[in-house]
Design goal:
Distance between the termini of chain B: 49 Å
CATH class of the largest domain in chain A: Alpha Beta
Strand order of the largest sheet of chain A: 6-7-8-3-9-10
Helix content of chain A: 25-40%
Number of domains of chain B: 1
Number of helices of chain B: 11
Oligomer: heterodimer
Order of helices and strands of chain A: EEEHHEEHEHHHEHEEEHHHH
Largest interface: A-B, 48 and 51 residues
CATH superfamily of the largest domain in chain A: P-loop containing nucleotide triphosphate hydrolases
Largest sheet of chain B: 6 strands, mixed
Number of helices of chain A: 11
Order of helices and strands of chain B: EEEHEEHEHHHEHEHEEHHHH
CATH topology of chain B: Rossmann fold
Number of strands of chain B: 10
Strand order of the largest sheet of chain B: 6-7-8-3-9-10
Radius of gyration of chain A: 20 Å
Radius of gyration of chain B: 20 Å
Number of strands of chain A: 10
Strand content of chain A: 15-25%
Structural class of chain B: alpha/beta
Shape of chain B: globular
């Protein structure tokens, strides 16, 4: 897989802070990959995200080390306007990024800013609405929608820009369990259809482990773990770094410790129950 | 005791957010409210402190009708940590933020100082004592709102989506706080989408959909009913789903992974 995101030896120290928020950080992600970023609050996740979407160093003052590249472009020397087309950002609270009078106008907002032609704009907005299943909401006012619908409108606005990399900041935390599960399935479908890379910050991992290719754990500004989600979650260190190991994974890890051999990657209750049922007398 | 008697609430826009809710929350009870976005959960808890008054019906807190009791008097009884901490943080420093409520309720300066020390330590916020609340991370702000409320020791503690932005260590601590409050006779009401967080606490669970209470009972019973849950867009906790799908079904769903481990290891060995 070609590397879409390439972070090498990155570090950043805010102008008003005595210590480095992130230090010696390496990370690469390929096209269509879903990488989940976890770690305790204050571990430097937000700083890393800012360095990827360009807010650092374009908007924040401080000491910068190393290199961050998206699709071969060095973030520090690429204008924000161009970065906005490469990197999409979905905030935790969709209220922070939807504000127009209708859903379709809202989704078109970023494209209007870029001066995209009308015909193409229509096409991209329609496509984004189709992808997220919100076509019927096109004329509705965003403020009348439920939180789950708002979240999808905000994501459609991000996707309409056709970014190569999409950053999701705790996308499911304000959603009811089923809406959260549907959003995770949408992300899986979108990355397959568009080959966009997703970098997701999330504390609730029970849903995301189903689709994530990798789980990266940060602590005190450094990368401390990076691997397949099942491998990282079965490492006893993960919990010490504040990673929420799902109950099912904890159970499987404990059973393996008891000498029970389980077929690998049992991520849902159905899969584990099937495995146990097929072997119990 | 908190008593909702046939309470309906209609927003000025005409939307009916609560529809004939009847619910009694006893002193010392731990209650979780779950349900889809927009089901009326937050509207319901705002009635406890009188921030919202019922359009029809009555809410009684310790026998007092919220329509004729001041929000200040109700707040002393029931502290609410809102979903979005930015809605309730406004002081210049973290310690001032905690002092605000205490002074308003007439605590002495000495007691105020003591309570500030205790709550900063308890919630791991000591290093931010003199900092502006605005520089805290989302998870830290959430902890600060909780510190503010617990500092004046209300009988009822309402937590609206307390786990958002919290890592697993903080969540574990939060679960401990809820258990501790329960064991000291406090009433705790938690609104949350985080089913996996709620399950091991084993609270009484109220499921809401479209402004109505559609299920109410012990966690083990409510979370077993997949059909009712799915109507309210709630999923089952992983361990409950697993318990139900096993050929050798346990008599009650596994509460934690250790219990499941003992049982499954026995079956497979």
């Amino acid at each position: 897989m070609a590397s879409l995101l390439e972070v090498k030896g990155f570090g950043f120290k805010y102008a008003d802070s005595p210590k480095w928020a992130v230090q010696d950080f390496d990370l690469s992600a390929g096209e269509g990959e879903v990488v989940v970023l976890a770690g305790p609050s204050g571990c430097g996740k937000s700083t890393l995200l800012r360095a990827i979407n360009g807010l650092i160093p374009h908007m924040y003052v401080g000491e910068y080390a190393g290199s961050v590249r998206v699709a071969g472009r060095e973030v520090a020397s690429t204008p924000m306007r161009e970065l906005a087309q490469l990197v999409g950002f979905l905030f935790q609270n969709p209220e922070n990024q939807i504000f127009m009078f209708s859903v379709e106008r809202d989704i078109a907002f970023g494209l209007e800013n870029l001066g995209v032609q009308r015909g193409e704009m229509r096409e991209r907005v329609d496509e984004a609405m189709r992808t997220l299943g919100i076509t019927e909401l096109a004329k509705r006012a965003p403020h009348e929608l439920s939180d789950g619908q708002k979240q999808r409108v905000a994501l459609a606005g991000v996707l309409a820009m056709r970014p190569k990399l999409v950053i999701l900041d705790e996308p499911t935390s304000l959603l009811d369990p089923m809406t959260a599960s549907e959003l995770v399935s949408s992300v899986d479908r979108i990355r397959k259809e568009t080959s966009a890379t997703f970098l997701v910050v999330e504390h609730r991992l029970d849903l995301l482990v189903r689709i994530a290719d990798r789980l990266v754990v940060m602590n005190e500004g450094k990368k401390v773990m990076d691997g397949r989600p099942t491998d990282v979650l079965s490492d006893p260190d993960a919990q010490g770094y504040g990673v929420a190991v799902p109950a099912l994974t904890k159970l499987e890890n404990a059973m393996i410790k008891d000498g029970i051999k389980l077929r690998g990657n049992l991520l849902t209750a159905e899969e584990l129950a099937r495995e146990v049922n097929s072997r119990s007398r | 005791m908190i008593d909702f008697r046939d309470v309906s609430f209609v927003h000025p826009t005409g939307v009916k957010a609560l529809d004939s809710v009847t619910l009694t929350i006893k002193d010392g009870e731990s209650l979780a409210i779950v349900g889809e976005n927009g089901a009326g959960k937050t509207t319901l808890v705002k009635h406890i402190t009188g921030l919202l008054k019922p359009t029809t019906g009555v809410v009684l807190v310790d026998g007092q009708d919220t329509r004729s009791t001041s929000t200040a008097a109700l707040s002393k009884k029931a502290g609410v940590a809102f979903q979005n901490p930015d809605h309730q943080l406004f002081s210049e420093s973290v310690e001032e933020e905690i002092a605000f409520g205490l002074r308003n309720f007439g605590f002495s300066e000495e007691l105020t100082a003591q309570r500030i020390d205790w709550s900063l330590k308890f919630f791991g916020l000591e290093e931010y004592r003199k900092s502006s609340p605005l520089i805290l991370s989302g998870g830290e702000k959430k902890r600060l709102t909780l510190a503010c409320i617990l500092s004046w020791d209300p009988q009822v503690v309402v937590l609206d989506e307390p786990t958002v932005g919290q890592d697993s260590i903080q969540k574990e601590k939060l679960a401990e706080i809820i258990r501790m409050l329960g064991s000291t006779g406090k009433t705790v009401v938690v609104v949350s989408h985080d089913i996996e967080f709620l399950w091991p606490i084993q609270p009484r669970v109220v499921v809401m959909a479209k402004g109505k209470v559609v299920a109410d009972g012990p966690a083990s019973r409510v979370f077993e009913d997949a059909a009712v849950l799915s109507g309210a867009r709630v999923t089952q906790p992983q361990l409950v789903a697993l318990s139900q799908m096993l050929k050798s079904k346990p008599s009650a769903p596994f509460v934690d992974y250790l219990e499941a481990r003992r049982s499954l290891t026995e079956v497979l060995k």
